[in-house]
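Q: C-alpha cells for this one, please.
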Amino acid sequence: MSVRTYNPSVRVGNWNEDIQLEEDTLKEFLQKRESGELLYQKRTKLEQTIFKTVNLSISRDGFVHFGDKVNIRCPGALDKTQYFAHIEPRNECNLAVVPQVNKILYSNKFEAPSCVTGSRDIASNLRSTFVIKSKDGTHDGEPLRYGQVFYLSTMDNEGGNLLLQSDRVTLHKSPNKSRHQEVSLVAEPSSLTEWKILHFKPKLRFEYEGVPVPANEKIIFNHVVTNQDLCVEEEVAIRTSFGTREYEITACTQLDSHRAEKEQNQWMIVMGVPGDDIYPVSQPSCSSQGASSLS
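A: Here is the predicted structure, written as C-alpha cells:
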C-alpha cells in the first residue's frame, strides 16, 4: 500500500498538477452545491417530497368514488394481549410505496417496479396516498361499488402514476420472507392490476354486490385474477431505505375457523369527512379524523 509522503505545499513532484486538481474538485463541489445536485441535497429534497402532507378527498355522501385520493389502511390488532415471542401486536398501518432510492434521487418521482409495505406512519403523504381509477370506463365522481373491478394507482407527477399489481407465486418470484403472493407497483395496466372490493362479512357479500362502497369502514381488498386478499404479514418486518421497520404486504387470504378473513385481510379506504377541509393542512387530524373515529 503506497503512502503519500509529500503534499503540494512542499513543491516536490507534480505539485502544480495536484494543486490544480484540488482546485477543480473544489470548484465542481461548489457548482453542484449551488445547483442542488449534491447527494445529501437530493435526499433531503426527496424526503421533503415523499413525506409531504397530502389532503385526502372529502367523502360528503359517505362513499368512495372514482378519482378520489385515499389511504388504504389496515386497523391494528384488536387483541393486544396475544402475540408471538419477540413480535409485538400488529399496529395500525397504511399501504405505502417503497421506491428505489437510486432511481428516485435522479428522476424525482416513483418509478416501476416499486415495492409496497405497511407503514406505521398513518399520516397522509405521497407514499401512502392512492387514487381509485376506473377499468370499465366509469367516470370520475361515480361511486365505487362492491364487486366492481378497478385499478389502484399512485398519484400523478411525483407519484409516477403506478398501478398496484399481484401475481402468483413462482420459484423465482415471491417475497423473501413470507413466501406468499407478491404485491408491487408497475407502470402498465393488465389483468394482474385488477382489484375489487368485497364486504368483510362473507355471508353478506352476495347481498351487497353492486352497492356503493362506504368510506372509512372495513372491507376486503381482493385481487381479481388470483382471488387472494391484500394481507399484512404481521410477523414479518422489513427495514426500508428510510430507516423504518414496516410490515411486509402480500396477497394471501387468511381464514379463521368460521371461514371468514382474519384481521390481517381487513382494510379501510380512508377519506376525509365533511369538516376536515376547514382545518389547516398542517393539522394531523385532517387525514386521520375519519378513520380514528371508526377504528
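A few notes: The chain has five helices and twelve strands. Helices lie at 15-35, 39-50, 101-107, 205-208, 285-292.
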